[in-house]
């Protein structure tokens, strides 16, 4: 199973819109991904789940999206030159070593020009420490708002081709 993670808890984010388009592209390649938005995390995650007091809401997310996944696709927006803190809290709340040997593909998202390159580097280091193998074909997506139509769907053909290339490589990996 593949889980796509929209790595922000910001309501109505462009990252989630892009993640939905990515999921549709994966389906065209024959995959059946599940989409997890970190917007759906329980509010108490930073004060209970991270310290081992697993809430039923977080356990349900782990059971549905994390444990059965062999592969993760993480779309991460740029927050202060890195990735959102909620993503780190999410990883910190997972059981240590529970995701070893899984594989991940990364997509950096920004409204600026760099496509969250620094954030993908930071995220790669953390995932490597967790024992998660990161696919080398990372996709930095810049000026994301210009790539989406009025309904929030990816309209940019060049980006669609980049995603198709990454999806093909990741599914074979």
Structure description:
- With 173 residues, the protein is an alpha/beta fold.
- The chain has a single domain (2-172), classed as 3-Layer(aba) Sandwich (Rossmann fold), CATH 3.40.50.360.
- The chain contains five helices and six strands; from the N terminus they run βαβαβαβαββα.
- The protein has helices at residues 14-28, 56-66, 85-93, 117-129, 157-172; strands at residues 2-6, 34-37, 71-77, 103-109, 133-134, 139-141.
- Strands 1, 2, 3, 4, 5 and 6 form a six-stranded parallel beta sheet that branches.
- Strand 1 (2-6), helix 1 and strand 2 (34-37) form a beta-alpha-beta unit.
- It is globular.
Task: Explain briefly what this protein structure is.
Helix content is 37%, strand content 16%. It has helices at residues 14-28, 56-66, 85-93, 117-129, 157-172, and strands spanning 2-6, 34-37, 71-77, 103-109, 133-134, 139-141.
Number of helix segments?
A: 5
Q: What top-tier CATH class fits best? A: Alpha Beta
SS strand fraction: 15-25%
Separation, N- and C-terminal Cα atoms: 13 Å
Characteristics:
173 residues, alpha/beta, Rossmann fold, six-stranded parallel beta sheet, 5 helices, 16% strand
């Amino acid at each position: 199973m593949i889980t796509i993670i929209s790595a922000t808890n910001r309501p109505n984010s462009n990252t989630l819109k892009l993640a939905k388009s990515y999921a549709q592209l994966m389906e065209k390649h024959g995959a059946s991904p599940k989409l997890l938005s970190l917007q759906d995390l329980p509010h108490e995650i930073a004060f209970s789940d991270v310290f081992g007091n697993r809430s039923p809401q977080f356990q349900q997310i782990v059971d549905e999206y994390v444990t059965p996944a062999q592969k993760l696709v993480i779309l991460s927006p740029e927050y202060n030159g890195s990735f959102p803190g909620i993503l780190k809290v999410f990883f910190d709340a997972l059981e240590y070593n529970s995701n070893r040997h899984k594989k991940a593909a990364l997509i950096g998202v920004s409204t600026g020009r760099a496509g969250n390159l620094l954030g993908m580097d930071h995220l790669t280091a953390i995932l490597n420490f967790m024992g998660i193998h990161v696919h080398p074909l990372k996709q930095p997506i810049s000026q994301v708002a210009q790539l989406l139509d009025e309904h929030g769907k990816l309209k940019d053909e060049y980006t669609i081709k980049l995603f198709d290339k990454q999806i093909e490589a990741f599914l074979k990996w």
